[in-house]
Amino acid sequence: MYSNEQKRSTLSISGYSPDSVIDNKDDSAFKTRSAWVKDGKKMQVAANISIDLTNQPRVLLNNCNMKLTAYPNSDEFLIDNYEDSGVKYKFEIEEVCCIVNEMDLADGLANEMETALMEHKLFQYPLISPQVRSFFIESSRLDSPATTLYTSKMPRRIFMGLVSGEAYNGHYNKSPFNFQPFDLRDVHIDYCGVTLPGRPMNLDFGNGKCVEPYLMLQEALGHTRNNTSCNSISFDQFKSKGFTIFGFELSPVPQDTNLFDLVRPTNLSIRLNFNKPTPSGGIYCIVYAEFDQIIGLDYQRNPIIDTVV
């Protein structure tokens, strides 16, 4: 969702370099990342903490206790290595620090906030909470029957991609972010008695018949309704170079974090059909969904999370 300018500037210090083709050892971005750590060189990086509470614009109250625990994936999942030398590379973290921005409020404003907190007993933070689900599709299948993923409330929008079974479980020679079409013909989202899209897509990625899902992805990201931002994913990349991600808007306000839609309990399911049997080893369907969420802090700074808003 970041622009190409951000990818080549601020995101570069997080260890990111924008690929033109995923899983290609000749791609310039892969060569750039390899040069950063070649021959065991150390690399210092900095990136935002991508969790719900830090992905919203409001500042936290003072004296809030937060504990962050990170669990890294396996080395096979984290490292791309296309040289087939048999060398088992390792990813090692030597030092971690957290940089926090602190605001020094005027005494009058700080006192007013404490008075309001004691009076109302609760400060609320509306935010967008993402949830990720995945399911496995066996090899030699031409379809995946309706798979129910969410059974509580309807998400704002969802994004879906397909990766090989080996890449999903970790493999030195395969990137877990290589989202391929796998000769997908149709994808349907069923929720609240509605099917999206309303008609079969009849996709044929090999012949370039996939404009509709590309446009739906850009619409879900909000890039088709303005001329000021773009995620720099070209149609050619979407079609065959590892960027085949499907986007669906389910809410009237999918991108506005200041507005909440009415809660609509529903069962959300996904149906997939393929032109050719799925490959050996099977594939995984990964679904990223965004939900309305509220986190509250009481006068003692205890967090209160309401999972149904």
UniProtKB/TrEMBL annotation:
<dbReference type="InterPro" id="IPR000358">
    <property type="entry name" value="RNR_small_fam"/>
</dbReference>
<dbReference type="GO" id="GO:0004748">
    <property type="term" value="F:ribonucleoside-diphosphate reductase activity, thioredoxin disulfide as acceptor"/>
</dbReference>
<dbReference type="GO" id="GO:0009263">
    <property type="term" value="P:deoxyribonucleotide biosynthetic process"/>
</dbReference>
<dbReference type="GO" id="GO:0005829">
    <property type="term" value="C:cytosol"/>
</dbReference>
<protein>
    <submittedName>
        <fullName>Uncharacterized protein</fullName>
    </submittedName>
</protein>
